Amino acid sequence: MEATKEKEQYNYYSIYNGTLNHKSTGSFTIPATPIRDLPSLQKLNDQQELISVLIPFHNSSTLELTVSDISNQELPTNTNLQVVIVCSACHSSSIKYAQEVKEKFQAPNRQIDVIKESKPGKPRALNIGLQHCKSDIIVQIVDDIRLKPNLIASLYYALQHNPDYLAAVAVGFPANLSNNSLLMQVQRVHHDYFYKNDEHSLIGRAFSFRKKLLPEGFPEETMAEDFWLELYSKDKSKGFIIVEDTSYSYKKPETWHDYLKQIDRFDAAYKQLKRKHPKLCKRYLNKKPRVKSRFINMLINDNSSKSYPKIFIDFLSNKEYSTIAKLLYLLIIMYRLYWLGIKNRFFLPKDAVFTRESSTL
What we know:
Structural class: alpha/beta
CATH architecture of one domain: Alpha-Beta Complex
CATH topology of one domain: Spore Coat Polysaccharide Biosynthesis Protein SpsA, Chain A
Helix content: 25-40%
Shape: globular
Number of helices: 12
């Protein structure tokens, strides 16, 4: 009976191969195959573990909440945490804030290091942090998400007990789409028709990876370090793992300026990755567009095959969204495909430094 309780309590150890993707996300059903269940909690309690958690930090006001969630994680008894916060091109007030967070949450089994880095760019912050991380399997958490209590253990032990994989990732869910403002209505359409179907990818908000398989670290000139890691993991290992039964929450941009900038970054990062790593992209990107790059494809929120007129009619007649939100989403599609398509083709950022919006991605 006791073993059953342990299994139920720690059922987040059910893990899935990223090449097969994961379970159903709404109407977009993706097949899932378990790789291996992890050992019982009792066996994990007998192990002495050090888990390094790496946080690239850039002037976020929510770092304290994220570190609070890390301090309240469910972990086997003998686990010690090392939390490395890299202040990437932060204001002096943000560095002071990070130090205050350290003082508040440091504990005998939880060491917190605050590292200052004057040069911007998330990949550079990750590489600086790698020099201070002591465990081989590193859990990377961005500075503005809320974690389920089992997230760090899920990401860490998924890799520890599956040595043929380079990375593992958890799925995130937006926390503020219930807001009924026009901006959130449009983002709800955008999420359901575009981002939701991409949740089986290696998204950079919360993932783990093996340090020894990245001897040169992350390419510092590449904005899409998460997408690069997804492809690189397929090149150097069996791929990446999607960890089920855990998650995190994040916030969608809360101003139109940040929303449009996020779309710009998404488009530029993808085009930059293809230009800077052509062999890797050619080898592992599907023949079908990995990022939706046709107008009609951005109006499909399931994996069914329909004619173009049917797709368009179904979208406009969908009563789940207001008419004005759907019309504005059509303008967003044109903005991304046509305006950004031209701008980012001829004026593509040369490095990973992008004037960042309030949200992380």
